[in-house]
TrEMBL record:
Superoxide dismutase copper/zinc binding domain location: 82-221
Cited InterPro entries: SOD-like_Cu/Zn_dom_sf, SOD_Cu/Zn_/chaperone, SOD_Cu_Zn_dom
PANTHER family according to UniProt: SUPEROXIDE DISMUTASE CU-ZN -RELATED (PTHR10003)
PROSITE patterns: PROKAR_LIPOPROTEIN
A single MF term (Gene Ontology): copper ion binding
Signal sequence coordinates: 1-32
Protein's recorded name: Superoxide dismutase copper/zinc binding protein
Coiled-coil region list: none
GO biological process assignments: superoxide metabolic process
Top-level taxonomic group: Bacteria
Family: Belongs to the Cu-Zn superoxide dismutase family.
SUPFAM superfamilies xref list: Cu,Zn superoxide dismutase-like
Keywords of this entry: Signal
Organism: Paracidovorax avenae (strain ATCC 19860 / DSM 7227 / CCUG 15838 / JCM 20985 / LMG 2117 / NCPPB 1011) (Acidovorax avenae)
Source taxonomy: Bacteria, Pseudomonadati, Pseudomonadota, Betaproteobacteria, Burkholderiales
Length: 238
């Protein structure tokens, strides 16, 4: 009997096959992880980045522009002696005034009906007086009554303002919010009217001007120039 002997087949040991399989699986997982990480980097940006980009594209919304005006207060002989800056607010018109060259003490201060500072007749006597062309106090409520600043317009002139206190150096300032007037067009508008300072204190009761004496300073209320700030005269006009 003839025996056929075959050459033994060499196979990879089982432990080695297992190690090779595990290594291949690990490599596959590593590649998958890299792919996932790359996708995350190129995907949707983080929330804070979106917020920053959104904020950068938002444009500020400007608020309503406030009307402003100014008046150059002059003496009867045309010398500058003060300024006033007027600003429209939701509650009325804020008036910031400064004067110089006046006697120490209290001085009546009013809004007058006419935007003129020329000499003119006094309503009571008919005589020509300094700044008489400015007329009487601004009185849109037709009260025909002098009174306290801020009183209802049917009880007193809307043009009533507090006295200006002047120091020993001849200078004085006043800041006051008049709720009865406006700078915008309408019945209560004071644009184009006049501010007048008197020689004496206003008693807030005597008609027609609080027994405040003669008119010593006057200025027409006009749209403000860029340099119109308290303590600085508006830009001169040609």
């Amino acid at each position: 009997m003839i025996l056929h002997l075959s050459r033994p087949t060499h196979s990879t040991p089982r432990p080695l096959r297992l190690a090779t399989a595990l290594a291949a699986a690990g490599a596959t997982l590593a590649l998958a992880g890299c792919g996932a990480q790359g996708t995350k980097t190129q995907g949707t940006p983080a929330p804070h980045a979106v917020e920053a980009a959104s904020s950068a594209t938002k444009m500020p919304v400007p608020g309503p522009e406030r009307a402003t005006a100014s008046a150059r207060l002059m003496t009867a002989d045309g010398q500058p002696a003060g300024t006033a800056v007027l600003t429209e607010t939701p509650s009325g018109v804020e008036i910031a005034a400064q004067v110089q060259g006046l006697s120490a003490g209290l001085h009546g201060f009013h809004i007058h009906a006419n935007g003129q500072c020329a000499p003119g007749p006094d309503a009571a006597t008919g005589k020509t007086i300094p700044f008489g062309a400015a007329g009487g106090h601004f009185d849109p409520g037709m009260s025909h009554q002098h009174g306290q600043p801020g009183a209802p317009i049917d009880k007193a002139h809307a043009g009533e303002l507090p006295n200006i206190t002047v120091g020993a150096d001849g200078r004085g300032t006043l800041r006051y919010l008049n709720a009865n007037v406006t700078l915008t067009p309408g019945k209560a508008s004071i644009m184009g009217r006049a501010l007048v300072v008197h020689e004496k204190e206003d008693d807030y009761k005597s008609n027609p001007a609080g027994n405040s004496g003669g008119r010593v300073l006057c200025g027409v209320i006009e749209p403000a120039q860029p340099s119109s700030v308290v303590g600085q005269a508006p830009a001169p006009r040609n």
